Amino acid sequence: MSSLETRSEDTALGAVSRPPGTDPDAVSPAGRLAFERLLGDLSARFADLSGTRVIEAISDALGQLLDVLGFDRATFSEIRCEGEPFEVICSASNSRCEPTPAGPTPYLPWYLGELSAGRIMLLPSIPEDLPPQAEVEAEYCRRIGLRSNLGIPLRVGGRVMAAIAFSAFQRTRPLPADLVARLKIVGEVFAQALARSRRDAELVAALAEITRLKECLEAENVYLRQAGCARTARAPTSRSPVFIQVLEEIAQVAPTQAAVLLLGETGTGKEVLADTIHRQSTRRDRPMIRVNCAALPASLIESELFGREKGAYTGALARQRGRFELADGATLFLDEVGELPLELQSKLLRVLQDGSFERVGGTQTLRSDARLIAATNRDLAEAVSQGLFREDLYYRLNVFPIQVPPLRERREDIPLLAWELIKALSESMGKPIEHIAEESMAAMLEYPWPGNVRELRNLIERAMILTRDRTLRIRLDGVPAMQKPAPGTLEANERAHLLQTLELTGWRIRGAGGAAERLGLKPTTLESRMQRLSIRRPGSEGA
Length: 543
Hints:
Layout: H1 29-47, H2 54-69, E1 73-78, E2 87-93, E3 103-104, H3 109-116, E4 121-123, H4 135-144, E5 148-156, E6 159-168, H5 177-227, H6 241-253, E7 260-263, H7 270-279, E8 288-292, H8 298-306, H9 323-326, E9 331-335, H10 342-354, E10 356-358, E11 365-367, E12 371-376, H11 380-385, H12 391-397, E13 400-403, H13 414-429, E14 435-436, H14 438-446, H15 452-466, E15 471-472, H16 490-504, H17 515-519, H18 523-532
């Protein structure tokens, strides 16, 4: 225990010279009165003591007790959690020895075990008062020259949570029962004050955490309202082998924590795929946070990503949490990451490496556990060679690259995407569409789609605004002419032609006006070719 501590080398064991006939251990009537007054003063002082000053006040009080009682050292120790060892909180000593260092107590199994069990350790004469099983304690006391020791366990809330100890090195000390009782009372005053301070500190920490979580929730709600982040929960589907491969790669990487880099032309649906990765991940219960690096001025990107402190710059009237804070425990999607200014790329790299960052104008290091998905239509490898993109950041982002094909390379999906868009727009516009004009579907299947899915959506929306009946006619003549891509393989062209015909006939194979009649084939021959080309009706098993 703390009272059995190593004293300084200059502490001698010789007797202290006193006037003849004086009892060196007696407390004079004046000293007894001073002791009683001190107890009353300490009780009053600790009644309303601020939690931040408790340990300092206990240390001062130990020094005052030593002056009145004549011990060489006093130590106060604490057990923070039941079952843990004692730890020295503070200590006081006279000029003949050093105070006990703060920290764990020495290994004294019998002594500490007795204190932990709630038994007062009354050892006026050491080593005579030590039992045979206290071999470690006997050797320890002999080595440091300890002559007397009083250790008092202190209970708060029914458990031993602290102990106060008094040690004498110069001579043995009698320890009368009334002195022990008084010291136990004052020790319990100390322990109660310390327990209150611990509870107050825990309450302050809990309130701070509640405030932090409340601010995070409010900032997240503001972000969601401003960004309009509601997304459909339906996963994308496809009939294109090249896009099906993309979806399979997404299914593999989504449950991991790896960074994903989506590469592809503008309008290919990279954000939809990022949302799909997030919804298939373990972080799907939190919203995905989005940042378009190309849509923000360079001067604002840093504060958007990392946040800012109040007064960080002109116009910063309040503290703002950044997207990395909002995405803690969730997913952060950086669209057009290739447009990120070079000076911010090093800060992004640091967050990706160790999760730490500082707000603009702040000095406190914050941490974020955000899973990153980045997207770009730029050739980042070429940007690295031109010195426009950091090579180390490129390799950090390029953990799992996914190449998103343009719409012209997945023509099999054009009818499917068109009907999905028509269904969504019909609900918002109140215009039910039952058919797509045959010539419109043929034109869409031939068109090169430089704007990809985004362009397809815009054309369909314009056509739905103009339509007056239940058949949609999409005009492509107003779009600038583009050079048609080179024809694909015979099998790919056959597959696209069959799909187009099946879409136009509503996937009806047999009968007048059916797909087999339009193609000039027997129904069984058409079904055989569909099986060979892996063509299945939407909604059928395996589709």
